[in-house]
Write a structure and sequence with these properties.
heterodimer, A: 272 residues, mainly alpha, MetI-like fold, B: 317 residues, globular
């Protein structure tokens, strides 16, 4: 069982790792500038030095795909990280103190879940204008309740255990117990939550960029590439397919990784 | 279902709607700086002070925050969502015109998802491990991974651009040409349905397997009931509870997806004025539409809960 779990982790894990590596190494790779236009080679097919051809402004498609991964993933990781920091802190305090106000805060942030995510994002974009910073802010806000809720539930489950009692009996301060004893023991579910948030953020970022309300052109983003390629669909359908495939495969790999992580870290959930 | 439980649910929904409205109201005041200046500024350029002063007055920002909040809530109760900053058109009238088209798309999408997702889930569970089950589990994983606007765009590329079977998008009123209306509805409805169908398939399959493993199913079989009757009366009735819950939870994603799908197919629902308003920083219009769709989400969940309670009396405790 464990062995099969590891194999299920390895394949999507390797794919996600590859995309991450490409995204991180993008500036080091020998590729054309992703925003340099070359109108003469507009919609040109594959050629040496430009394996996937050129887009509607004559920009290199492969380079834009890889730089697009960098944009998507940095927005997604940054927002999942911010959301995690805030959400986990709220959940830890709420679950540990169980004071009226702390529990109220944890319940309170759940009101964010009453909004369809795209709509809350559009409201904030109206106020702050589009851009990567706005995206990170909105996505962080959207995923705080998830982290807070999971942490809260896990802290409640863990805090009666003997090892927590023991730490308390040794006279450890609450902050030490929370960060040194409780947090490592609930790291599994939090990691799953983190991977879910990253995957969801990639989807939402691409959607908002597709609407022209996310990443600001000419920065490369998969959503923006699909938006741009829609206009030239008739002449260059491949231009549309590349970013669609990159986006879908990345999300597929991330989803499979999330599922495998959850099954691996949490034996309680059974796989039918 | 008991009257007390029903009242509590309805009151809770109203309370949540009030909280949602309050958050939307506060959004304008939580951003740092002068909101009027912020809404008028484009790419860092300082807006004209006279225009800022005028906008402050139109949005009521020159009054105290409590007065503004009171007027906002009073307006909501009266059904007055204010006027567009761009053309002074009443927001409510724009919504009244567009909401039915968005609702039509949502209902069509949900129906397609239910018609395909639930029977497929039951079939896969009964024939667990078979070819259909394994193939369907890969198809659902793929459907869950493809973003809704990608599905929409690819449907246009395949059915409109390449095969030339369907129109690429647009809208014809039903009264004018019913056949064309349905033809234009088909692709966007399928695009919206894809995620929900996948989730419903997974949930139905898991819930059916779960129900099949219960003792009461064995008892029902042992007493000689026909397989069809065991499935309909004992398995499905119990399996549908989690499926209904998931249906409600997924509505948030579905409503958000509608915005994207309407854009892809030029379907003139709420998405068109919403996106135009976000781009033009037309704050009252954005607030009106965001509130409408969020309250719609709450109402759908209320209905789902009522249906849930009707199927399963345990919910009320």
């Amino acid at each position: 069982m464990k062995r099969r779990g590891l194999a299920r982790l390895a394949i999507p894990g390797a794919f996600v790792a590859l995309i991450l590596l490409l995204a991180v190494a993008a500036p080091l790779l020998p590729m054309p500038d992703p925003i340099r236009q070359d109108i003469a080679r507009r919609l040109a097919g594959p050629m040496p030095g430009s394996w996937l051809g050129r887009d509607e402004f004559g920009r290199d498609v492969l380079s834009r795909l890889i730089w697009g991964a960098r944009t998507s993933l940095s927005v997604a990781f940054a927002s999942a990280l911010f959301a995690g920091l805030v959400g986990v802190t709220l959940g830890l305090i709420g679950g540990w103190s169980r004071s009226w106000s702390a529990s109220f805060t944890v319940r309170g942030v759940e009101i964010i879940m009453c909004f369809p995510p795209v709509l809350l994002a559009l409201l904030v974009v109206t106020l702050l204008g589009p851009g990567a910073a706005t995206l990170i802010l909105v996505l962080s806000v959207l995923y705080v309740p998830g982290f807070a809720r999971v942490t809260y539930a896990e802290v409640l489950a863990v805090k009666g255990r003997e090892y927590v009692e023991a730490a308390r009996a040794l006279g450890a301060r609450p902050s030490r117990i929370l960060f040194r004893t409780v947090l490592p023991n609930i790291a599994g579910p939090l990691l799953v939550q983190f991977s879910l948030a990253v995957a969801a953020a990639v989807v939402l970022e691409s959607g908002l960029s597709f609407l022209g309300l996310g990443v600001v052109p000419p920065a490369p983003s998969w959503g923006l590439m699909i938006r741009g390629a829609r206009a030239t669909m008739e002449q260059a359908p491949l231009l549309l397919l590349w970013p669609c495939a990159a986006l879908t495969l990345t999300i597929l790999a991330m989803n499979l990784l999330c599922d495998a992580l959850r099954d691996w870290l949490d034996p309680r959930t059974t796989d039918h | 279902m008991s009257a007390a439980w029903l009242t509590r649910r309805v009151l809770l929904t109203i309370l949540t709607a009030w909280l949602v409205a309050t958050i939307v109201f506060m959004a304008l005041h939580m951003v740092p700086g002068d909101p009027a200046e912020l809404l008028l500024s484009t790419s860092g350029a300082m807006p004209d002070p006279a225009a800022v002063a005028e906008l402050r007055e139109r949005l009521g920002l020159d009054q105290s925050i409590m007065t503004q909040y009171g007027r906002f809530l009073a307006g909501l109760v009266r059904g007055d969502l204010g006027n567009s900053l761009v053309d002074d058109y009443p927001v409510l009238q724009e919504i009244a015109l567009r909401l039915p088209r968005t609702l039509e798309l949502i209902i069509a999408g949900t129906l397609i998802a239910v018609i395909f997702g639930i029977p497929a889930g039951v079939y896969a569970a009964i024939h667990r491990g078979g070819i259909f089950d394994r193939a369907a589990s890969w198809v659902t994983a793929l459907l869950l991974a493809v973003p809704v606007f990608v599905v929409g765009t690819l449907l246009v590329l395949l059915f409109a651009q390449t095969l030339r079977l369907m129109p690429a998008g647009g809208f014809t009123p039903f009264a004018q040409d019913p056949a064309q209306h349905l033809k234009l509805l088909a692709l966007p409805a399928v695009a919206i349905a894809k995620g929900l169908a996948a989730v419903l398939f997974r949930m139905t399959r898991a819930a059916t397997l779960d129900a099949l493993a219960h003792d009461y199913v064995r008892t029902a079989r042992a007493k000689g009931l026909s397989p069809g009757r065991v499935l309909a009366v004992h398995v499905l009735r119990n399996a549908m509870n989690p499926v209904v819950t998931v249906l409600g939870l997924q509505m948030g994603t579905l409503l958000g997806g509608t915005v994207l799908v309407e854009y892809v197919f030029n379907w003139p629902g709420l998405s068109t004025p919403l996106l135009r308003a976000v781009e033009g920083r037309d704050y009252p219009m954005v607030v009106g539409i965001v509130l409408t769709i969020s309250v719609l989400f709450l109402l759908i969940n209320l209905v789902v809960e009522l249906v849930h309670a009707a199927i399963d009396p345990r919910v009320q405790s």
